[in-house]
Design a protein that fits this description.
The protein has about 200 residues and is an alpha/beta fold. The strands form 2 sheets. Strands 2-1-5-6-7 form a 5-stranded mixed β-sheet, sandwiched between helices. Strands 3-4 form a two-stranded antiparallel sheet. Helix 7 links the parallel strand 5 and strand 6. Helix 7 runs parallel beside helix 8. The longest helix is centred in the first third of the chain and has 16 residues. The radius of gyration is 19 Å and the shape is globular. The relative contact order is 0.16. Bound molecules: zinc ion.
Length: about 200
């Protein structure tokens, strides 16, 4: 008789499915959104290599990157010049790549997966390609109608840039009960925070 049969392990936790991992990491990208101080738009991204989170970021201003908060004030002014505002921003996807580089994880970027709260814009998609990221998981619910502001960008990224660069784009939906739990349950958000800081293993949903 095999040893396993002599000593059955009761209540053994089943292994976490790929889908569950994708949902938890997507919640991690959503959590990073909440760290943006941009009054208009908040986005978040995390990069995962195997089971390790190698980079994470939210959208920032140049000022945040040099720890000068003057830019927030300029950004929050309704009459601030739109070009100025756009040029002052750094997107969460690129910030997560910079974070990986700063932490010395640049060698782990090729082949990794990025989780995003919105489908990346064209410059971010190019940065993703340049970094060697091979998979992008998008859990965003952004308006994709042809008359929406970012429509041309999305079509270009999902139909041209990513297929040409052989980047797999996976669109997932976070189940409503999990999304609600994430919004109201502080302990659950703390667990997600620990996961994206490599302090906790992912558990099944
Ligand atoms: Zn972008």
């Amino acid at each position: 008789m095999k040893q396993q049969e002599l000593f059955p392990i009761k209540n053994k936790r089943r292994s976490v499915t790929t889908k569950e991992k994708q949902i938890i990491y997507s919640l991690g990208a959503k959590l990073m959104q909440t760290y943006s101080h941009n009054p208009k738009v908040q986005t978040g991204a995390i990069i995962v290599n195997k089971k390790t989170i190698i980079g994470k970021g939210s959208n920032t201003t140049a000022g945040e990157r040099i720890r000068d908060h003057e830019d927030y004030q300029l950004l929050s002014l309704d009459n601030s010049d739109n070009n100025y505002r756009l040029n002052m921003l750094e997107h969460s996807e690129r910030n997560s790549i910079f974070d990986a580089v700063r932490k010395g994880n640049w060698k782990k970027l090729p082949g990794s997966t990025m989780y995003v709260a919105y489908l990346p814009c064209v410059p971010c998609a190019n940065a993703i390609i340049g970094a060697g990221i091979k998979q992008v998981v998008d859990s965003g619910t952004r308006d994709m109608r042809p008359d929406s502001k970012w429509y041309a960008d999305w079509i270009f990224v999902k139909d041209i840039l990513f297929p040409k660069a052989k980047i797999e784009l996976i669109k997932i939906e976070i189940p409503q009960n999990i999304e609600e739990k994430f919004i109201i349950d502080m302990e659950y958000r703390e667990y997600i925070w620990k996961v994206i800081n490599n302090q906790r293993k992912i558990k099944s949903l």
